[in-house]
UniProtKB/TrEMBL annotation:
Bilayer topology: Multi-pass membrane protein
Alphabetical UniProt keywords: Membrane, Transmembrane, Transmembrane helix
Entry's Gene Ontology BP terms: endoplasmic reticulum to Golgi vesicle-mediated transport
Top-level taxon of origin: Eukaryota
GO cellular component terms attached to this protein's record: COPII-coated ER to Golgi transport vesicle; endoplasmic reticulum membrane; Golgi membrane
Presence of the UniProt keyword Membrane in the record: yes
Taxonomy of the source species: Eukaryota, Viridiplantae, Chlorophyta, Pseudoscourfieldiophyceae, Pseudoscourfieldiales
GO molecular function: COPII receptor activity
InterPro entries cross-referenced by the UniProt entry: Svp26/Tex261
Native source species: Pycnococcus provasolii
Record-given protein name: Uncharacterized protein
Record Pfam families: Erv26
Similarity remark: Belongs to the SVP26 family.
Subcellular location: Membrane
Length: 206
């Protein structure tokens, strides 16, 4: 009869180290996304051009996967169609788009459908594939362009209704959606830190 498993000090230490690693990775990803969003905001035209090239290269990659690896034709067609909706989104005054506009909603539906098809492909063909293989494959084939669009997009809902339709917002309205979310989180934690820390340390936070 096997002895019941007991929690030792080594187990607690290992669990604590694992959670710290997850925390550090999450913080590193957040900092990396913030840096990329800042970089994209400074070079919007170059980002859009690179995104167009990435979308254009996607059908060729899917053709290789279809011919060489014989992946399902339906999944390939749905995935390529999703890339076409992303290209259509780029043509609609991007990066200043309305969250309820038809190109945005179409792109979201196409992305969800594409992920559903890819999930079915993975469960039938690569059910035992490691996590790093699945993530690496999906980043290149399906996630790269949507992530770039998400980092690049800026909300056009704050634009004055009497302004020119093609005019870009100025000042804080030019801030990307991802940067606005990250700025809000940073300001929230900064406010919490100011309440918890002594008055003499507030200047360092500012």
């Amino acid at each position: 009869m096997m002895a019941p498993w007991t929690i030792s000090a080594s187990d607690v230490t290992a669990f604590l180290g694992g959670y710290l690693i997850v925390l550090f990775v999450a913080l590193s990803v957040a900092v990396g996304i913030f840096y990329l969003a800042e970089l994209v905001e400074e070079h919007t035209r170059l980002t859009i051009q690179i995104t167009k090239y990435a979308i254009g290269a996607t059908p060729a990659l899917h053709a290789v996967l279809l011919i060489v690896d014989r992946l399902p034709l339906v999944t390939m067609l749905v995935s390529v169609t999703a890339q076409g909706t992303y290209f259509r989104l780029l043509k609609s005054n991007f990066p200043f788009v309305s969250s309820l506009s038809e190109p945005v909603l179409t792109s979201l539906c196409a992305f969800a459908t594409s992920q559903y098809c890819w999930y079915g492909t993975f469960t039938t063909r690569w059910a035992d594939a490691p996590v790093d293989f699945s993530i690496g494959f999906m980043i290149v084939v399906s996630w790269l362009v949507p992530l770039t669009l998400l980092i690049s997009v800026s909300s056009a809902d704050a634009v004055l209704p009497h302004g020119a339709p093609s005019a870009a917002p100025s000042g804080s309205q030019r801030r990307g959606v991802v940067l606005q979310v990250l700025d809000a989180g940073r300001n929230f934690f900064k406010a919490k830190a100011k309440r918890a820390l002594p008055q003499t340390m507030h200047q360092r936070l500012d």
